[in-house]
TrEMBL record:
All residue ranges annotated as the Lactate/malate dehydrogenase C-terminal domain in the record: 149-306
Family: Belongs to the LDH/MDH superfamily.
Protein name, UniProt field: Malate dehydrogenase
Domain Lactate/malate dehydrogenase N-terminal: 5-144
Binding of substrate, residues: 84, 90, 122, 153
Domain of life according to the entry: Bacteria
Coiled-coil portions: none
Chain sites annotated for binding NAD(+): 10-15, 35, 97, 120-122
Active-site residues, Swiss-Prot/TrEMBL: 177
InterPro entries: L-lactate/malate_DH (IPR001557), Lactate/malate_DH_C (IPR022383), Lactate/malate_DH_N (IPR001236), Lactate_DH/Glyco_Ohase_4_C (IPR015955), Malate_DH_type3 (IPR011275), NAD(P)-bd_dom_sf (IPR036291)
Its EC number(s): 1.1.1.37
Amino acid sequence: MVGRKVGIVGAGSVGATAAYSLTMTGRCHEVILYDIDSDLTVGKAIDIGQSTSYSPRGTIVTPALHPSEMKDCDIVVITAGVPRKGDMTRADLLMINAKIMKEVVANVMKYSPDAIIICVSNPLDIMTYVIHKMTNWDRSRIIGMAGALDGARMAYEIYKKVGFGSGQVKGMLIGDHGQNMIPMPEISSIGGVPLEQIVTKGDMQDIIARTKDGGAQIVKHLGTSAYYAPGRAVAVMVEAMLDDSQIVMPSSVLLDGEYGYSDVCVGVPVVLGGNGVEKIIELELDGETKAKFKISVDSIKDGIEILEKNNFFV
Ligand SMILES: NC(=O)c1ccc[n+]([C@@H]2O[C@H](COP(=O)([O-])OP(=O)(O)OC[C@H]3O[C@@H](n4cnc5c(N)ncnc54)[C@H](O)[C@@H]3O)[C@@H](O)[C@H]2O)c1
Ligand SMILES: O=C(O)C[C@H](O)C(=O)O
């Protein structure tokens, strides 16, 4: 799938930043932006398009004024939706974003029927599940972006704790993109050196707490949620697919027996390549982590149940 067409639905903070990041690295031929706000779509497309004069490749940035103008994309990124503000949790966005998702996904199915979809809108794992339910596409083609961001946040916290190895830190986590996410410093490393051999247990607890709270910290300071790190995280996933680079990245995917669960989307390490999710990696979890993972999966299932009770899927 070398260097082709990427559609981004939602030209707000995350969508536009993802587009900008993609054009800066120049890995794709064309980015198409669509938002229900046409002025925003056109304005961002022009501004980002003009920035590509100085990037390694003159990626074309096209505004779509109607969903039909975003067609035959290889990858579609969905960032359409409402971000949280103030004291809201991501779960508070469930009903409003599920409604938006219904409209957006119907258009993606119609106009880009062969695409891989990367879901960004929150609550992430439940929105990713909604896309599976609506499309019924092969599960390799629908992926939720969360671990790429949370792993970067974890790497940031690890660096802040030890003061070296920036850019060499690999953070691993599993579970939902919410309060029950499970950062796993015990299997993370700095330049290949296990973190366990560098930081104390107390420091690890701090790293875990700060990683889990990473999104809320930004909301506290900015009054809306993060977009630079999320935008870059989206672009890294897109690039892995365009380049078929087969990288390992924790992402939200539909489980079908892995980790003992089915019919739920949750974050686990996967291999990303030209076909989307190339492989789901099953970590061996100890008893304590298994129990945490169950709480995490149950919290996602609770959200799905709320949608079912509201007849969302009929
Ligand atoms: N998965 C993650 O790690 C992660 C990270 C950051 C943000 N998010 C989520 O991403 C979403 C977007 O965040 P943001 O900061 O970019 O918000 P934003 O408000 O800046 O942008 C969202 C855009 O979606 C558009 N939109 C709404 N309904 C639409 C529709 N039916 N069709 C097309 N466009 C539509 C809006 O007009 C708006 O421009 C939020 O739900 C947020 O919680 C997730
Ligand atoms: O925190 C949010 O609500 C947005 C996003 O999920 C994030 O983690 O930055």
